[in-house]
Amino acid sequence: MARAREACGNVPVLATPGRLTAIAEAEDLLARGVADVIGVARGVIAEPQLVNNALYGRESESRTCIAANHCSPYNPGHGCALNPTVAKEERWGVRQNAKAPRSMRVVVVGGGPSGMEAARVAAMRGHTVTLIERRARLGGALALVARMPGREHMHRAGDWWAHQLDRLGVEVRTATDADAETILALAPDAVMVATGALYAREGMSGFSAQPIPGWDQPFVLTPDEVLSGARTASGQLLIIDEEGRNAGVGTAEFLAAHGCRVTIVSSYDSAAPHMGTARHYIGLRLREAGVLLSLGTRVLAIGDCEVKLELLATGEQRTVPVDGVIMSTMRRQVDGLIDMLTGKVAYIYQIGDALAPRSLIEATYEGHKFARLLGEDVMPKTVIDELFRIAPGFRPAETLTAIDAA
Questions:
Q1: Separation CA 202–CA 249 (nearest Å)
Q2: Predicted TM-score (pTM) of this structure
């Protein structure tokens, strides 16, 4: 930008410096004469009050854009992974934060993005909220992503939610297992189950519905275990990536940075194919980290410290030695609390990855949406009741058929 400003002479320069996350950054650029006007896009999508918060000394209240790129035109739909109110301001904007018609005692189980957003919105609308998280700190899967090289900034989102929960008076219990007895002892009117999802060790995926033979070998791990530090891996490692998102490539970078020799095996023809415009950037990072790619390849079986592979295009098979295998194939929701609580709590909402493993934007959306329904006259008993709620004036097909026949 500085070179552009120098070349423009007296012509005013408007600069949009990528992911600008704080007004202080814009002021610094102006003070140094890099530009005459600074444009901000993603920063005010993530935090519409970015300028006002800076102006009135409330910058700690501002979300920090983490460049998830859900606001990008290259991604389907439109919105923000951190701010579910984007494009819904008439329903959920800052002017729609009145207290709920009746206050409720709410327990949120799970301190990931969905659970934290649910707890934040519920407390903001006047409910008494307790959040229970089994790990020692909040963040959920987002905290694990923040451990991957190049993605450290993701922790800012968790820090923001944690600050909001503290500000709003939410009781947060970390390092606590939430069983039915613990939850019911709090006498909740409603429970929001946001217990997330974990990677399946068996190796099933969208590519193959069958477990990979040998998946139960003791050296087979999951990204959750590696990134959380629950288990360690070393030596020659093979990551089976059939998800095509952050977990496979990010875990590969994490392990390579810790001295491991890593190869990613995938039936896809590129690394991280579902990461949109970030694919090229990720490919460069993998190359710099020394991660090898074996694309268009499937795993036939896992043996004794070896893996049998097949090249899909030709059917050529080969066996490679390994010290460990990481299954980044599919996630399975953690939803055991639902059956334990059904019939014992009037309202139970299963949200985020606990409902179905998806991405960050769905997690925060559902946390926000169902927290806003708490205490309302139209409050559903469950998520399913809301998803299949019949709109006023709608007549089911069989009713219309009967009317037409009459």
A1: 19
A2: 0.90
